[in-house]
Amino acid sequence: MSFRKVNIIILVLAVTLFLLVLHQNFLGLSDLLKREISDPNLVGFQPLAFVPNAPKSLLSRSEEEIPVVIAASEDRLGGTIAVMNSIYHHTHSNVVFYIVTLNDTADHLRSWLSSDSLKSIQYKIVDFNPQCLEGKVKVDPKQGDFLKPLTFARFYLPNLVPNAKKAIYMDDDVIVQGDILALYNTPLKPGHAAAFSEDCDSTSAKVIVHGAGNQYNYIGFLDYKKKRIRNLAMKASTCSFNPGVFVANLTEWKQQNITYQLEKWMKLNVEEELYSRTLAGSITTPPLLIVFYKQHSNIDPMWNVRHLGSSAGKRYSPQFVKAAKLLHWNGHFKPWGRTAAYANIWEKWYIPDPTGKFSLIRRHGDVANAV
């Protein structure tokens, strides 16, 4: 055999070996990117994107994954970005964000998260299919939340984070100023599937929200004139809780079939209108109040300092706001809107949208006058 033929054979073998290695790597990557959240009983919840490998800057972070679930709507996407950025910069833990959104928002979100300032963040984008809410939500133009399916994403946590035993859920109108690990380590009592911040705690009670009626009690959310509500024997004066930030034991959640229980009360409300006509908060609250009545643990009140969005005025002292672990702009005055209290604190964590689709709404001189 000539020397030339030997070289050709060696070259062919080398090319073949290279193609085999390339093929195996491609299959491995495809399998990783195509991991599905599978539940034949529910519609949707399909992962659209995943950043699987922690970059070099995360190698020193804790190995235990801390899943943080956030619902991201197109018109509030800047809020989601600010939440993620604030959490990432206050912890050394291995946080993975599960961003629940609608399919037409995914590309916009992915482009935003490609910004240099956000490249180190680990995330998974999960598509939420509104069909899972059919027959469970009554469309009422007077209640805007009824038309926002993503507000119900928190009811389906085990399906959004299928492999986790524990997870954190938080709204998109918050900023985190403490280490998220502390919130994740909130102790839950045996048999409790979630921990919330009660509305009667010392932090929330500092602020009175005018026009909200019984803001801190069950009667502000449920219609006690209805026999089905009275039959539950829940005291109307029971302190309510805020579902915008909570820690969930997903093992207990699944064992107690919490999602099914929540859907049951959603359906009954469609049929019987069980919620209060002067609803004090989000329409996601009433079914949670029923299902978790005297069956939930509590988070540290400083991990949900809320009502920052109840008015444009500043209700807390600068020292108190600085000490808070989490600031929550629940209410009509969002920090990305025209007027909002403490908007300058929120803006520290906001990263401008590289696509230009989302922009802050500010009055002339607002930024200059921020303290």
Automatic annotation (TrEMBL):
<keyword id="KW-0472">Membrane</keyword>
<dbReference type="GO" id="GO:0016020">
    <property type="term" value="C:membrane"/>
</dbReference>
<keyword id="KW-0328">Glycosyltransferase</keyword>
<keyword id="KW-0325">Glycoprotein</keyword>
<dbReference type="GO" id="GO:0005794">
    <property type="term" value="C:Golgi apparatus"/>
</dbReference>
<keyword id="KW-0812">Transmembrane</keyword>
<protein>
    <recommendedName>
        <fullName>Glycosyltransferase 8 domain-containing protein 1</fullName>
    </recommendedName>
</protein>
<dbReference type="InterPro" id="IPR002495">
    <property type="entry name" value="Glyco_trans_8"/>
</dbReference>
<comment type="similarity">
    <text>Belongs to the glycosyltransferase 8 family.</text>
</comment>
<dbReference type="InterPro" id="IPR050748">
    <property type="entry name" value="Glycosyltrans_8_dom-fam"/>
</dbReference>
<keyword id="KW-1133">Transmembrane helix</keyword>
<dbReference type="GO" id="GO:0008194">
    <property type="term" value="F:UDP-glycosyltransferase activity"/>
</dbReference>
<keyword id="KW-0808">Transferase</keyword>
<keyword id="KW-0735">Signal-anchor</keyword>
<dbReference type="Pfam" id="PF01501">
    <property type="entry name" value="Glyco_transf_8"/>
</dbReference>
<dbReference type="InterPro" id="IPR029044">
    <property type="entry name" value="Nucleotide-diphossugar_trans"/>
</dbReference>
